[in-house]
Amino acid sequence: MGRAEQILVTHEHIDHVIGIARHPDPAGIAPRLAITATQRAALGQFALEGALPEAITARPALDLPAAARIAPGVVAAPMSGHSPGSQVIFVQRADGAEFLFIGDIAWTMRNIEELTTRPLALNYMIFDPPEVRDRDVRAQLRALHDLMETDPALTIIPAHDRPYLLALVAEGRLAEGFVQHP
Ligand SMILES: [Zn+2]
Ligand SMILES: [Zn+2]
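# zinc ion complex -> structure
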């Protein structure tokens, strides 16, 4: 992360942002952070001191009221539902390969293929605030489901579908860890 041009996150849940909230060099990553005010507001509770370092809070937040180009080949689009600060990140690499990072809108590709959401009880046990399902997540799953059919070349990346992600690594479509762009 310390060498990245920009650091984006799909959403503000602890397993996706603790590397920012507890980064050993906040001043080093602060200029690279491209996170929204909603995402940043949730980060403080995960910081070791209970509040974010000033280097991070002093940075202007990413203003993302609608889909926007973040960098060449990179577009972020707000997609609240799983969490208030959820967004999807579309990446088209120089070789033309296209990826859509969906964070936790679905935990597995099966959720998208079969249009299944997480167990309802889980929603209230582990998400605070709970997911907005009827209005948002179900519609997003449906859109992703349809997108898979109309654009099979697009690689959808759910953050937690480990067997699927490892298969993409084995195929050479992804690499594990942070990889320096040539
Ligand atoms: Zn999440
Ligand atoms: Zn997660």
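# post-check
Strands lie at 68-71, 74-78, 87-92, 98-103, 155-158.
The longest strand covers residues 87-92.
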